[in-house]
Description:
Elements: H1 40-56, H2 58-101, H3 105-110, H4 118-124, H5 129-144, H6 148-157, H7 163-179, H8 183-195, H9 203-216, H10 220-233, H11 240-254
Helix pairs in contact: 2-5, 4-5, 5-6, 5-7, 6-7, 7-8, 8-9, 9-10, 9-11, 10-11
Amino acid sequence: MSKIPFTGKSQQNRPQRVVSTDPLAPAQAYNPEHPLMEDPDALAMRLVESEDFVRRNKNVLLGLLAVVVLAVAGGFGYYLWRNSQNEKGQAAMFQAVSYWEADSLQKSLKGDGRNLGLERVASEYGGSDAGNLASFYAGVAALKQGQYKAAIDYLEDFSADDYLVQARAYSLIGDAHLELNQPKEAADYYNKAANYNANEYFSPAYLLKEGTAREVAKDYAGAITAYEKILTAYPAAAEANEAKQYKSRAEGLNNK
């Protein structure tokens, strides 16, 4: 008869749990062969404690669950509402944008009696993308009509991830401040436009406007800095020649 080879894992060599003859005495420490196995008694005790914790704190846990459910439902509801508002806003501003493109600025801003103007769209759908875009259109229209304070308000309400449009909005706010004889404020906005995702295509023009606005404000040192940045950061820009001339003029004025 063949013999089974000794492997070291026979029943003789496995650690055994010693059970006391006294049923009231605590069991000896459980030492399983596999280190990841739970002690059944400890596991049972933990389950009992968990059930007891849930029972004692049932109202608190139900309250927390209700808060989580309400937060998720509220967030989803807001998402649906915002999408709905955006669709309505886009439909509402369609005619206003058509007037804007045709340079019928008054109808674009105020509406035509049947269709909302940009002012109403920006106000009623302000939390949507359509309302945000309406603020930009309204700001440009107000600027063209000489309503500079209104233009600033609309354009400051506008925000965009697109670096070209946002920088353009900053520059237009600068234009409105310059028209209001506020050259320092204008220069600050031109600087924001130049440095918002700075690039070789648009930043030089904004820096040139900043420099001239600082000259109007008699901040010649600031003007020199703006012109110098064009020459050092964007030497190949079309504005470089003007920047060189304007810098010489600002230096002459600064030394007086």
